[in-house]
From TrEMBL, chain A:
This is Protein N-acetyltransferase, RimJ/RimL family. InterPro entries: Acyl_CoA_acyltransferase (IPR016181), GNAT_dom (IPR000182), N-acetyltransferase (IPR051531). Keywords: Transferase. GO terms for molecular function: acyltransferase activity, transferring groups other than amino-acyl groups. Residues 14-168 form the N-acetyltransferase domain.
TrEMBL record, chain B:
Residues 20-38, 202-212 have a biased composition (Basic and acidic residues). Residues 53-209 form the N-acetyltransferase domain. Keywords: Transferase. Pfam families: Acetyltransf_3. The lineage of its organism: Bacteria, Pseudomonadati, Pseudomonadota, Alphaproteobacteria, Rhodobacterales. GO terms for molecular function: acyltransferase activity, transferring groups other than amino-acyl groups. Transmembrane segments: none annotated. Residues 12-45, 190-212 are annotated as: Disordered. The keyword Plastid does not apply. InterPro entries: Acyl_CoA_acyltransferase, GNAT_dom, N-acetyltransferase. It comes from Jannaschia seohaensis. Gene3D superfamilies: 3.40.630.30. This is Protein N-acetyltransferase, RimJ/RimL family.
Length: 200, 212
């Protein structure tokens, strides 16, 4: 078995790369915090280490997985985004997490939009996101990404919401993809940055 | 455009696609730090062979056997108790991830003549671990043939061939079969350690080096 290739994705403000050992402390800090409450956390140091190893091993096992999001400006890590499908997941998921201190800058939107376009160009014909019903930041992000609640879809544990992402055809050259690109531009350009409640 | 093969489950020996150029629209280009080779054997996870056994990289096809082992009350009696398939999935992925993070890890053990997974043996070093551990487990139905002993010897030999220091193994005191195997491997009992999932364990110290 050869190692699953983990491509590098660049966006206006971000570089998405394979998770590396030196990125672990930021991951651990977030998964030891209240921030991880919708993702099975907070975790003990042992559990966090095993989950980080699982994030990396997922690439080998599935051929896709989660990228580490870096700021292009100074290479600091901001969070993770990518494809995710543990054994109990009914469908392949688009997933994300942003470190608590980096929230509100539109990084999750920019990263997840890039990941979704990449996965669609490499064969995915759709995706869902499983979101805790009280995870309002992620529900908002689903809606900004054009995903719609699918009440018919099978959930993981019964208490999560399934958001179905627009298909590649629904996304290509549409008003929706134009709107996402504009919102990302507005976050990236200080003159245009939106005011009001910060969201991921 | 990135080749389709990079997103499918990679099979053994799958030829690599030519390196992709940056995609103008998505900004995708290959990661220069990618440790991937062009084809064939995983550069990080060697395959070991013994008289009867093959120790190889875990693959998706091994997951059902792995999950059955982790769900088996008898096999898991001294390993923190059985866990469900979903928890086993993360551990299974973590087997690969630990190789990527540490440069060492655990192998799936099979008999040379057939591919059925028989056990899981190799190196284990979670964060803040006191020393690199040699870990062994035989899957239900494959116990009693000395497979864990033979595989552990091979793993230890591989480890010491790189000039690495002596190993330890953490074993629950009432796990009599593993205590017997530790003794057979020449280990001596030392201090106790509260294991994050096993409860109280005894740290067994392996001898320095391994004769070939």
């Amino acid at each position: 078995m050869t190692r699953a290739k983990i491509p590098l994705i660049e966006t206006r403000r971000l570089v998405l790369r394979a998770p590396e050992p030196e990125d672990y402390p930021d991951f651990k800090a977030t998964f030891a915090s209240y921030r991880s409450r919708f993702m099975g956390g907070p975790l003990t140091p042992y559990e966090a280490w095993m989950l980080y190893a699982a994030e990396i091993g997922h690439w080998d096992i599935r051929g896709f997985g989660m990228w580490m999001i870096h700021a292009k400006a100074d290479d600091r890590t901001l969070g993770m985004a990518g494809g995710w499908q543990p054994a109990a997941w009914p469908e392949r998921e688009l997933a994300w997490i942003i470190w608590p201190k980096e929230a509100g800058q539109g990084y999750a939107l920019e990263a997840t939009d890039a990941v979704r376009r990449y996965l669609y160009r490499t064969g995915w014909e759709g995706a869902v996101s499983y979101v805790g019903s009280r995870n309002l930041d992620s529900i908002r992000l689903c809606e900004r990404l054009g995903a719609k609640r699918d009440p018919e879809a099978q959930t993981i544990a019964g208490d999560d919401l399934v958001y179905r992402h627009p298909s590649p055809a629904e996304l290509a050259d549409t008003r929706l993809s134009w709107a996402i690109a504009r919102e990302i531009e507005h976050y990236a350009d200080p003159k245009l940055s939106p005011e009001g409640m910060p969201v991921d | 455009m990135i080749a389709q093969s990079s997103l499918t489950v990679i099979e053994r020996g799958t030829p690599r696609a030519p390196a992709a150029r940056r995609d103008a629209e998505t900004g995708i280009l290959p990661d220069p730090r990618d440790r991937d080779s062009t084809a064939g054997e995983d550069p990080m996870i060697p395959t070991l062979t013994t008289d009867r056994l093959i120790l190889r990289v875990p693959e998706l096809a091994d997951f059902d056997a792995y999950a059955a082992f982790r769900a088996d009350a008898h096999a898991m009696a001294w390993l923190g108790g059985p866990i469900d398939r979903e928890a086993a999935w993360h551990q299974f992925c973590a087997l690969l991830g630990q190789w990527r993070l540490r440069g060492h890890g655990r192998w799936i053990v099979t008999r040379r003549e057939e591919p059925t997974p028989r056990g899981l043996v190799g190196l284990f070093e979670p964060i803040d671990w006191p020393a690199v551990e040699l870990s062994w487990a035989t899957f239900p139905g494959s116990e009693g043939h000395g497979l864990a002993y033979e595989a552990s010897r091979a793993a230890r030999r591989w480890w010491h061939a790189q000039g690495k220091p002596a190993l330890v193994s953490h074993v629950a005191p009432r796990n009599t079969r593993s205590v017997a195997l530790a003794r057979r491997l020449g280990c001596t009992p030392g201090e106790t350690m509260p294991h994050p999932t096993y409860g109280e364990t005894v740290r067994w110290h392996h001898p320095e080096g391994e004769a070939a």
